Structures are given as structure tokens and as C-alpha cells.
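FW: tagging you since you asked about this chain on Friday. Here's the raw sequence from the shared folder, copied in full. Didn't touch anything.
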Amino acid sequence: MGTEETGTRRIVAGLYMSLDGVVESPQDWHFDYLSDEMEAVVGELVAGSDTLLLGRKTYQEFAAVWPHQTGELADGLNGMPKLVASTTLDSVEWSNSELLGDDVVAALTALKKRPGRDINLTGSITLTRELLRAGLVDELNLLVHPVVLGSGARLFTEETGKLPLALVHSATFASGVVHLRYRPV
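HL: got it, structure written out here
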């Protein structure tokens, strides 16, 4: 986790992924594998952060659902500050949400230098790719599902280029989902 004393914050990206690397539309394939183990991982990501970072599409999907939910996870997401990277939205309505300016990389570089806990980047494929290329993602949490989808947007594309990663954690769940945590080298 980032340390509040030193002002060192991390951007921790979390994504559901199919075995063939698809990260698009997990709501269509993820729930068959949902387990207490997976919910614990997601809960730890939220609990270790004080800011939720979202791209436009993920923000709109979350804002349509989470304000109407209750429970520990919903309370955490609804109560924490949310930063939204979008060049098309003029405003954000979900409580504690704020649009980032045009230069997302500069805004997040500055934010990482301020005191606080982790910044939780959830879903948001385009934004995750951009921040990986900019070297701003400090940890990549992948929940790899035992399903091959055959089509859909993948996290890593030719534009990603070479991205050396170090595996810092792995766990296999009873559902067959594998939790992998990587940090850039």
C-alpha cells in the first residue's frame, strides 16, 4: 500500500480477464466464477485505497448501479472520492466524483506525490493502457477466469509494446480463477 507519511501513492489497477486476455464486458462472463475469494480480493483493493479512478465508460456503468446498492462494498465505493478521466463528459453526478483535466498523466503524476493511500483503477481498459504506457501503474491485479472468449478488447495490444513485469503474488481459487499481482520492473 502507499504510505500516507511519505506521500508515496500507488496506482493499483484491477481487472477481470479471460484466459485469452479479454477484459471487455466482464459483466457478460465473470459472474459464473464469482466467489468469496474473489470478493475478498476486490474488498482488499477498495479497503487499501482512498480514491477510485475510472475511465468514462466504467464510470457511467458504475454510476448507474452503485449509488443504488447497499452494503460494505457499496458504502466504500459511494463514499470515496472518484476521479474520472473523460474528454467527452461535461459533468459527473455520482457522489464525490470529479472530472480530471485534459492532461490525465500530469494530474495523476501530481496526485501520486501527495499524501494518501492507493488509487484504485478499476476496469477502464483505455485508461489502464494509457497509464501503463506512461509508467504510472504501480501494480496490476488480474483475476484470470478459466474461460476463452475468442473476441473482445484485450488489455495488452501491439501498442502496449514491451512491458517487463515481476510477479509478486499468485493464488488459485476453487472456481479456477487465478489471482495474479504484477509490478512493473
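FW: Strands lie at 11-18, 49-55, 82-85, 97-99, 118-122, 139-145, 165-172, 178-184.
HL: agreed, and The longest strand covers residues 11-18.
FW: great, closing this out.
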